[in-house]
Write a structure and sequence with these properties.
It is found in: Cell membrane; Membrane. By secondary structure, the protein is mainly α. Helices cover 66% and strands 6% of the residues. It has 3 domains: 133 residues, MgtE N-terminal fold (Alpha Horseshoe); 113 residues, CBS-domain, CATH 3.10.580; 171 residues, Orthogonal Bundle (Tetracycline Repressor, domain 2), CATH 1.10.357.20.
């Protein structure tokens, strides 16, 4: 079913591009305006910048805003730059303040300033307030549009208040309860209000409230929200006064963004932050070239190690046959450990202070993996070549796996300790490091056993 939908989408995109090439805009409009916003979003993600702007202008006004909200901030930025000033200002005004901040982070400063000036006083104040918080903080991602209640409100009064502010609030399903100093006392849900007696007071309905401080890291708060499965939480300042709310859908958006960055950097590329098919080839090259240059320089270390042990290889040429096997196994073992530990860090299962425990566990894990692989390598190599050569391979696999697992497990923790993204210590970088150390171990063991 999913494959059929994908094929239909591809056919539709091909058809739209043909209409655009023929300047047949009426048929494009007819095709698009009967689709769901999510379907149109996927189509826009696959079009070129020029065609994307044309197609967007052909959408009905209400549909266009819903589609714009579904685009990634980078594609929103591209679209803003491609549209006329009037269309851009209208789109910007239609966004919620926290969504505007996502977009402003992707725009040049001059364009961002111009858009802010086009807002009315209240909207500009709300958006500017969010922009004033640190870049990675939850304050920059919270919504300042929420409905508050007082503990002495009746259920009827509370529902009337919700009804009067339906259009201006981010959500009406989570309602913080505050005192006269805007300090959060609790929270009540719309379900609880609707199910209560009209004369029942809010203080009898409200439950304990979960809060986050406005300067906390956005990713950490997002993971906490997703892990608890709460619909929303209250964001407070250092004096515990309510300044915003943070909803589950915003948490999912942040986690998708952060996980995408981590996966990219672990693979040795910079994150694209936009759909693949809408990314220019020049951008793809820039995202990869830096890491390739770094890794190429790092690989020279492996070449240096081989040159140092050149005489050893000349005496026992069979050793050269196993170099790819050994460095490949070491690299893969290190990558597995790094990926596991990086994920555990993201989920707050471990912290940098657990480095000794992680090192011990990864050494044991690597030793057991090396024992299994080394035993297999020893038996096969000893049968095909000689007993001594088999012993060299077996012991090297044992040592390399233990060292690689330890290095791969510790590096992300060291990165977090020095305030660097653990994903920056990407798997290719670990592979390069382990390749060199693995070769040194290999040739040292070979010289000791083979007496060369």
């Amino acid at each position: 079913m999913a494959n059929d939908q994908l094929e239909n989408l591809k056919d539709l995109i091909d058809e739209i591009e043909e209409y655009l090439e023929d300047d047949n805009f009426a048929d494009v409009s007819q095709q698009l305006n009967v689709l769901k916003p999510a379907q149109i979003t996927r189509i826009l993600e696959r079009l070129s910048d020029r065609h994307r702007a044309f197609v967007y202008l052909l959408l009905d006004k209400d549909l266009a805003l819903r589609v714009f909200e579904g685009l990634s901030p980078v594609l929103q930025s591209d679209l803003v730059n491609a549209l006329q000033d009037h269309d851009t200002a209208e789109l910007f005004l239609g966004l919620a303040p926290d969504d505007r901040v996502w977009l402003l982070d992707e725009l040049p400063a001059t364009v961002a300033s111009k858009l802010l000036q086009g807002l009315d006083v209240d909207e500009r104040a709300q958006t500017s307030a969010l922009l004033g918080y640190p870049e990675e903080s939850i304050g920059r991602r919270m919504s300042p549009q929420f409905i508050t209640l007082r503990e002495d409100n009746t259920a009827a009064d509370a529902l009337a208040r919700v009804q009067s502010r339906l259009r201006s609030a981010e959500t009406v399903y989570y309602l913080p309860v505050i005192d006269s100093g805007r300090r959060v006392l609790g929270a009540v849900t719309l379900r609880e209000l609707m199910g209560a007696d009209k004369t029942q007071r809010v203080e009898d309905l409200m439950g304990p409230v979960r809060t986050a401080e406005v300067t906390e890291d956005a990713e950490a708060v997002a993971r906490r929200t997703a892990r608890r499965g709460t619909f929303a939480l209250s964001v407070v300042d250092h004096e515990e006064r309510l300044v915003g709310i943070f909803t589950l859908d915003d948490a999912v958006r942040i986690l998708e963004h952060e996980d995408s960055e981590d996966v990219s950097r672990q693979g040795g590329v910079e994150p694209l932050r936009r759909p693949y098919l809408s990314t220019p080839v020049s951008r793809l090259v820039r995202s990869r070239i830096t890491w390739l240059l770094v890794l190429a320089v790092g690989a020279t270390l492996t070449v240096q190690v081989l040159s140092v042990f050149e005489a050893t290889l000349e005496q026992v040429t069979v050793l050269a046959l196993f170099v790819p096997l050994l460095i490949g196994t070491g690299g893969n073992t290190g990558n597995q450990a790094a990926t596991t530990v990086t994920r555990a860090l993201a989920l707050h299962d471990i912290e940098p202070r657990d480095i000794v425990r992680v090192l011990t566990r990864e050494l044991r894990t690597g030793f057991m993996l090396g024992l299994l692989l080394g035993s297999l390598g020893f038996v096969i190599t000893a049968l095909i070549y000689e007993f001594e050569v088999g012993l060299v391979i077996g012991l090297t696999l044992l040592a390399v796996c233990a060292v690689a697992a330890a290095v791969g497990g510790v590096m992300p923790l060291l990165a977090r300790a020095i305030k660097v993204d653990p994903a920056v210590f990407s798997n290719p970088f670990i592979s390069t490091f382990v390749d060199a150390t693995g070769l040194i171990i290999y040739f040292m063991i070979a010289k000791a056993i083979l007496q060369i």
